Amino acid sequence: MSTNYSEIPNGYLETIHNGITGVRSFRGGITSGLGSRQENLQRLKNELNTAEAVVIGAGAGLSTAAGFIYSGERFERWFPDFIRVYGIEDMYSGGFYPYPSKEIFWAYWARYIYINRYMDPSKPVYDDLFSLVKDKDYFVITTNVDHCFQKAGFDKKRLFYTQGDYGLFQSTDPENRMTYDNRKWVMKAMEAQGFILNIDGVYEIPENGSISMEIPSSLIPRHPDDGSEVTMNLRSDDSFVEDDGWVKASAAYADFLREHKGMHVLFMEIGVGNNTPVIIKYPFWQMTNDNSKAVYACLNYDEACCPQQIEDRSIVISGDSAEVIKLLLA
C-alpha cells in the first residue's frame, strides 16, 4: 500500500522530532540520578501504582535480559557449522556475511529468524513486565523486532514496533509495499536443514549433529503476490516497508501521547542503548521536561542515566532489567 501520512498521525516522525528537539535543549549534562537503588525501586513501585498512564520504551537490552543473546553459547549451539566454515563471531554480524549462494544465505536466516522470533526467551522478563502494567493504561514503543511483547500478552493495539518484525518478509521491488508472514517458510527451511521437531514442538539439532548449511533452491522465498525476491522487514535504509499494520501502530502511538498530554505519565525506558536514542531515549527526556506531572524512569544494565534538567523527576536504576522487574513485582 502507499503510505499517506497526510491523513493520519505519524507517531514515528513525531517521536524523532521530539528526540532531536530534546537533545538540543538539554544543556545541564547527564547524571546517574538521585537516591539509593532501594529508594529508586520504591519510587518506581509508587509511580507504577499512581501514574495515570505508562509509556514503555524498550530496546535490545530488554530482550538480552530475557535471554535473547546473539553471541556465546546460544550462538555456538545453533550455528556451529557457520562458525567453523566462515569464522562468524556472532549472530548479528553473520547476517551481513557475503555467503556464496542464496541457498546458504537463506539457511542462515531461517535459523536466525526461528530462534529469535518463533522460540520463546529463556527468562520470563516480558511476562513479568506485562504483570506490572496489564491493569494500567499503557502503550509500548520498541526498537526490538522479536515479537516478545505480543507473545507475553501485551495488546497489539498498544504496541509500536518501529524497526520491523523478524516474522515478516518484504519484497525487494520498491513498487511492492506489502509484507507477509514468514512462519510457514521458516519451519520448512528448518526441516530442510535437518532440524528435528521434538515432543514440545520445538526444533532442535539431531543427536548425530548432522545439519545442512543450505536449503533447496526451490525453497528460496519469493513474494506471494508477484514472485519477486524478498528480504527481511527490518529497517536498515529507506527501502523499509511501512505496511498498513506499521502505519496504524504509528498513529496509535501519536494518539496515545496526545490523549495523555499534561497528565501524570510514567515514561519507563528499559534496555535502550545509544544506537538509536532519538527514537525512545531523547523523546522521553523531552516529553518529561515538557510535562511537569511526568516522571522518567531508566532501567539499564550499565548505561542508566538522565539529564540533570529532569533529575528531580527521574528514577535511574542500574543492573539486570530481569532482576529489577522481579523486584518491582515482589
Task: Report on this structure.
It is a single chain. With 330 residues, the chain is α/β, with parallel strands linked by helices. It has two domains: 11-65 and 123-162 and 242-329, Rossmann fold, CATH 3.40.50; 69-120 and 183-220, no CATH class. 39% of the residues lie in helices and 17% in strands. The strands form four sheets. A six-stranded parallel β-sheet has the order 4-3-2-10-11-13, sandwiched between helices. A three-stranded antiparallel β-sheet has the order 6-5-9, covered by helices on one side. It has a two-stranded antiparallel sheet with strand order 1-12. A hairpin with a 5-residue loop joins strand 7 (196-197) and strand 8.
Write a brief structural summary:
The protein has 330 residues and is α/β, with parallel strands linked by helices. The protein is 39% helix and 17% strand.
Please state the average pLDDT score: 94
Q: Report Rg.
A: 21 Å
Binned, the helix content reads: 25-40%
- The general outline is globular
Strands ordered across the widest β-sheet: 4-3-2-10-11-13
> Structural class given helices, strands, pairing?
alpha/beta
According to CATH, the homologous superfamily of the largest domain is TPP-binding domain
H/I helix tally: 13
Q: Number of DSSP strands?
A: 13
Look up the CATH topology of the largest domain.
Rossmann fold
The proportion of residues in beta strands is 15-25%
